[in-house]
Prior knowledge:
The chain is mainly β. The protein contains four helices and 14 strands. The longest helix is centred in the middle third of the chain and has 9 residues, at 64-72. Residues 20-166 form the Flavin reductase like domain.
Amino acid sequence: MFYRPEDGHGLPHNPFNAIVSPRPIGWISSKSADGVANLAPYSFFNAVAYVPPQVMFSSTNEKDSLRNIRDSGTFCVNVVSEAMLHQMNESSAALPPESDEFVRAGLASAPCETIDCPRVADAPAALECKVTEILQLKGAANFAIFGEVTGVHIREDCLRDGRFDVTSFVPIARLGYMDYTAVREVFELARPEV
Length: 194
């Protein structure tokens, strides 16, 4: 099968997200100018640079997160564990701006250290970020948000032998459609020597 996206795929469901998978979930927390906490999962998310450490996520519409981040210049990326799957999903509901997704999902929040923003208190890890750039992408309301990581929180039980062990909390990743996966197994693969 071959198709041009502008012509349509002819399938019952768009295969694009299923092809580009698994995708890590950036559970983005922010705070409005009025002090209302916001929490929303984004599967168009990844790390993009080591020094300084930088991440990006993209929003496919004008959500509360984007408005809060534009206003404050900060956001926090929270890692989603399997134990928090249903709370993550609950935080994806399209609520009015004055609603607090932490409350709706029954999650405890904690303050960040380097930015004025809440984070998920029990997340395996959280990355405090200052915005470096917001790009409007092609399309009606597509935005890529880049941030420099200014603080890192790691839950102590997720550290084993000096390494952040993802099998200790089982991260959740997004596939296509309404599908997700859980990372329970890892393997090492050394780069070839020249």
